[in-house]
């Protein structure tokens, strides 16, 4: 089980791991050892998530999610399979924690009378400054 918060965890059956060869330099072992991990989570069909959290998760995942709603996270930062596996799981958990937080609703506000007057006064001052830089008309 992958623990997200104290009250939410994902069962192992919803996660699919595949080990692949890591890109980049790696010495003699690079072509022999599959140490990178590809973690897949089908968010669109997960019974664990609510619709609201699912929508936020897919939006946050961006291009890591395909059009079927499957999120794929690749981890190849470390040299060992175990550490890459932990890294991928932690990144998925972080995404889920972010999706669980409901965004704050924006409250529309209007500028105060004083702020409008300050803005207009600064505009008048700037216009006067530019006017004083012009050449005199009569000469």
From TrEMBL:
The keyword Hydrolase applies. GO terms for biological process: rescue of stalled ribosome. It comes from the Bacteria. Residues 21-37 form the Prokaryotic-type class I peptide chain release factors domain. Gene3D superfamilies: 3.30.160.20. One of its GO terms (molecular function) is ribosome binding. Signal peptide: none annotated. Residues 99-139 are annotated as: Disordered. Its EC number is 3.1.1.29. Keywords: Hydrolase. Transmembrane segments: none annotated. NCBIfam families: PRK09256.1 (NF006718). PANTHER family: PEPTIDYL-TRNA HYDROLASE ARFB. This is Aminoacyl-tRNA hydrolase.
């Amino acid at each position: 089980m992958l623990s997200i918060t104290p009250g939410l965890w994902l069962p192992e059956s919803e996660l699919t791991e595949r080990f692949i060869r890591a890109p980049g330099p790696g010495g003699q072992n690079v072509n022999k050892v599959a140490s990178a991990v590809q973690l897949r989570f089908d968010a669109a069909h997960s019974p664990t998530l609510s619709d609201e959290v699912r929508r936020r998760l897919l939006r946050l995942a961006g291009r890591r999610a395909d059009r079927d709603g499957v999120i794929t996270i690749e981890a190849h930062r470390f040299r060992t399979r175990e550490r890459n596996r932990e890294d991928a799981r932690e990144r998925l958990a972080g995404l889920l924690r972010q999706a669980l937080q409901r965004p704050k609703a924006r409250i529309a506000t209007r500028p105060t009378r004083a702020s409008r007057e300050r803005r207009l006064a600064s505009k008048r001052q700037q216009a006067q400054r530019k006017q004083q830089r012009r050449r005199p008309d009569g000469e």
